[in-house]
Specification:
33% helix; 165 residues; 3 helices; Double Stranded RNA Binding Domain; six-stranded mixed beta sheet; alpha/beta; elongated
Amino acid sequence: MFRLSLISLMIIALSSCKINYKFSDVQVKGDTAKVSPFLVQAPLAPPASGQIFTEQFQDMILAQSKLELVNADSADILIDGNISYYEIRPEGVQNNDVAAQNRLTIRVDVNYVNKIDPQTNFTQSFTRFANYQSTIDISSVESELMEEIFDQISQDIFNRAFGSW
């Protein structure tokens, strides 16, 4: 009888325990955001890269926050910027001075204004890169590399703007 009571007590105690994991702590002061189209100012960047980045960043905001995207300057949060750097250069030189890989590097400059909480405003550059085999023509992998880099930069911007750490 004592053993049954002990087991019952343990089951009750364990069932009342909760473990909560929280992977992102998004703190957004405001309800609406306007993400203006990112301009392309890097001479070597594809003309559509600004639009591609803008759409990826907007998708991330919608997926990871409760902000409503609007197209009005009266929004609580205003985000704009440009693609200011886009370069491909050899990386990892091997024998005979031949590069084993090439590196695509992209920098995005961002202006973030929160009308509700001006202390969180910032202007900052975010840079990321991706390597690819030098035997591959950039035109065959460029869109994939841009998507990978833009995902990383979008997450960096999102964390800076809305992360509470």
